[in-house]
Each structure stands twice: as structure tokens, then as C-alpha cells.
Amino acid sequence: MASGAAASYIRHLRSATGEVSCHPRPCFRRALFCHAVPTSVLPITEPPANVVANACGLTNRRPEPDFSAAKNFINRELSWLEFNRRVLEEAQDPTQPLLERVKFLGIVSSNLDEFFEIRVAGIKQQIASETSDVGPDGMSPTEIFEAIQRVAHEMVAQQYSLWNKEIEPLLQENNIHLSPHR
User: Fold this and answer.
1) Is residue 106 one of the residues assigned to a domain?
2) For the chain, where are the alpha helices, taking DSSP H only?
3) Domain range spanning residue 139?
4) Whose CA, among 21, 39, 65, 177, lies 20 to 30 Å from 108?
5) Tens of pLDDT along 57-73?
6) Per the confidence metrics, is the pTM higher than 0.85?
């Protein structure tokens, strides 16, 4: 018969059915990590400390993620431009009906007008006041403005190309003519 630590270990583990768990103490994780094994299979020794610690989740813990890091945030204005790009993609989709494509182009133009009137104007005010505030995304007002310019110029170029090379010729082919505004 085992004595000392081994004996107390076995007494602690022995269940009413004569089975022993590989876990030294009762634990809610026991059901997840340990399997009951017949007593005759287990040697009468203490398990390695790392087995017990791993079963209880005491080792190999991952560090807590830093949710406030700038990489976890998307700039609000750039996100809005990406949304508008998806609207432009609908206008570029040849499976859409022609007049729907025209409507999507109009929505893109209207959205960009409002975007520059409201949001870009606010960013320009921040730049003019020489604020050094950096948003949660880690971008300064000047960086945001430069990124907006790059994305917006690209989007408008795509918009004009789509209108001049695809939409307007298709409208003419379908005998739809635009009259100048009076």
C-alpha cells in the first residue's frame, strides 16, 4: 500500500466505481481534460506538475489582446469611402439593369458631394487649427486628408471612366438621350 503523498493522492482520486482520474484535485475542467482510468492502469505516483497545471489552465496562457491598439480601428472617413466604393461597384456591374447602373452612379456622386461638404470640411478645420489630435486609428488629420484625397481621386476617375466608356454609349444604343439642364 502506498503511503504519504502518493496515498493521499490515490484517496483523493478514487471514485466510488474504483476508477481514478489523472487530475489531483476536483476541478470544473476535470470533465473536459481528464478521463477516468481504472486503478489498475495507473501507477501509484504523483503526476508531473506540468500535466496538472495544464489541465487547470495555469500554464501556456495567451497574453490578453490590446483592444485599444490602433491596428484594431478603421478610420471612420475611409470606411465611409469604402462603402461608397461598393455602391460604385454596383454601378460597374454589367448584370445590373442599365438604368439601375445610372441610378447607382448618381448615388455615388451625391454621397461624395455630401462627404466633402460635411466630413472633409471638418478635417480641413482640424488641419487649419493645427490640432495634433490623433484618432483611435492612429491617424492625424493631415494623414486622413491625404488618404481621402487619394481614394476619392481614384474613385472619381473610375466614375468618369464608367460613364464615358460604358454607360453613356449603352444609353445611346438603347435610344436614351440626355438633354442638357436648362
Assistant:
1) yes
2) 5-13, 30-33, 49-55, 76-92, 98-115, 121-128, 141-162, 168-173
3) 70-173
4) 177
5) 555 667 777 777 767 77
6) no
